[in-house]
Amino acid sequence: MSVAGVGEFGLIDRVTARLSYGSTVLLGPGDDAAVVAAPDARVVASTDVLVEGRHFRRDWSGARDVGHRAAAANLADIAAMGAQPTALLVALCMPPELETGWAEELADGLAAEAAKVGASVVGGDMSASPTLTIAVTALGDLGGRPPVTRSGARPGDVLALAGRIGYAAAGLTVLTRGFRTPRLLVEACRRPEVPYAAGPHAARLGATSMIDVSDGLLADVGHVAKASGVAVDVRRDAFEVPRQMRDAAQALGVDPYSWLLAGGDDHALAATFPSAVALPPDWRPIGRVAEGSGVTVDGRPYDGPAGWDHFR
Amino acid sequence: MSVAGVGEFGLIDRVTARLSYGSTVLLGPGDDAAVVAAPDARVVASTDVLVEGRHFRRDWSGARDVGHRAAAANLADIAAMGAQPTALLVALCMPPELETGWAEELADGLAAEAAKVGASVVGGDMSASPTLTIAVTALGDLGGRPPVTRSGARPGDVLALAGRIGYAAAGLTVLTRGFRTPRLLVEACRRPEVPYAAGPHAARLGATSMIDVSDGLLADVGHVAKASGVAVDVRRDAFEVPRQMRDAAQALGVDPYSWLLAGGDDHALAATFPSAVALPPDWRPIGRVAEGSGVTVDGRPYDGPAGWDHFR
């Protein structure tokens, strides 16, 4: 059955029947708006949109994968402020001939990813559109801590990373060249594994700045350097190229460091910490903050591809 | 200059330079997420999406109009819970060849509409897309009051309306038939005039249920009737057909009550009140709640067009 066949309200009923609600949800879908707990008396909010053909392809990713990824991209932004995600709202634009099963599985993926951090899908909107588009807004709670912004890095700080990088970019290259393996990389491109807990953890440890790595490590560290008015140097030897990535790079004739340093979409977290902070295992040091501006790799400008611009 | 020409970050800079931030904005655009005050320790949140060709046409509405309308549709949902809007987040998907001026004027419209209620555009996302799409999320604060849902109407309550209805639908019919006047109606279709203050006002007066009229009065009152498990009767003589609407209806051969009773997009608010409440001038009585189910007009089923389904 197509989404046009069941109609807007029929589809909303089908989708909301699949959702469940955590303790932060005071009023879920079905009214003009949802009501979500904000115990901190501040709410952290971020919006990210995925467009078919631009951010995902239905022949490369299942609906559930796309749901996981759309949720993850937004939940990672909340975690990158040092906050705990509480809720997602989803605007879903669909071609009328889309199978309802696709929308239902998308909702399953969104809900399952949100559940990893105790968050819930609390509302949304649906419309017909020639272009399948998923705009997600995530909300979160700071738990009494100040938000960790991009602008607090100070000379002498250590740059550290939580989570994987380069996997999603490697997987995308693999898929683009017409392959479906290695599975590790292709799956990473379909569903990021976001180190959500590392965000609030970094905030409690006293991180001076933090960012979600979505445009590519060097590009995103560049945002931190610019916002903080500092220079950042990334150490290439901080990255071990995983075996499957090394093999794929060799087979495809790609420098694996272009995936590691410029690939986005793994939604790792990068943060800076005062050098006195003893970093726990989820945060590994990868560089240094200094006076100046810009990002260097081993002290030199990086001449590989820099990152991602969504209009180019 | 096209949006592809200035690029994602260039366009974000241009747009955010035009915004200003009210006192509820603790951290505005430019980081992974915004931080908004939620003094009530709960946040009200709603998402609504506008798709070109489905919800607006660029030859019928300017970018600023579309911005006003996208903001209004969302802010009205917050008001309909009895809450005070605080912030908007905007996901904007644009054809790469779109002029940057269009996006900038859209932002002006969004910000100006939000400013009417003291709210601010605090964040968003941009992407290229073949289909111009604007997904907006609005946040709001309940000020210590319980949310006014759709499910609290009780037999004996009075149904009341705040704001205009039928104007936007009449304006749309006028435009569809190739006319550009009467201006009053056409302008109403471009930019709704939402009675924002009437939402929190109704909550303070003890409204038992409330809804934003976006699908059409009878359809939306039907949502209240269903959620509350009651019947609602609407009095046709509660509506005076404005002169310009009557003239347009006559010229176009349309029953003006089809606009009044089934037209959406004016974002009036409909609410039910205990009969003992003395209604202030912004809320005029238009019907009654009784035991039973469904919506009637003057005691009979309404046989005109019922409302709007976004997939049909």
Descriptive account of the structure:
Chains A, B: It comes from Micromonospora echinofusca. Chains A, B: Residues 30-140 form the PurM-like N-terminal domain. Chains A, B: Mg(2+) 3 binds at residues 32, 77, 212. The structure is a homodimer of 312-residue chains. In chain A, 33% of the residues lie in helices and 25% in strands. Chain A is of the alpha+beta class. The first copy, chain A, has a 6-stranded mixed beta sheet with strand order 8-10-7-11-9-12, sandwiched between helices. Chain A has a 4-stranded mixed beta sheet with strand order 3-6-4-5, with helices on one face. Chain A starts with a helix and ends in a 15-residue tail after the last strand. In chain A, 57% of the residues are buried. The mean pLDDT of chain A is 95.
Summary, kept brief:
The structure is a homodimer of 312-residue chains. Chain A is of the alpha+beta class and 312 residues long.
List the helices and strands and how they pair.
Two copies of one chain form a homodimer.
Chain A: H1 3-16, E1 25-27, E2 34-37, E3 42-51, H2 63-79, E4 84-94, H3 100-115, E5 120-128, E6 133-141, E7 158-162, H4 167-176, H5 183-190, H6 198-205, E8 209-213, H7 217-228, E9 231-234, H8 243-252, H9 256-262, E10 268-273, E11 284-290, E12 294-297
Parallel strand pairs in A: 4-5, 9-12
Antiparallel strand pairs in A: 1-2, 3-6, 4-6, 7-10, 7-11, 8-10, 9-11
Helix pairs in contact in A: 1-3, 2-3, 4-5, 4-8, 4-9
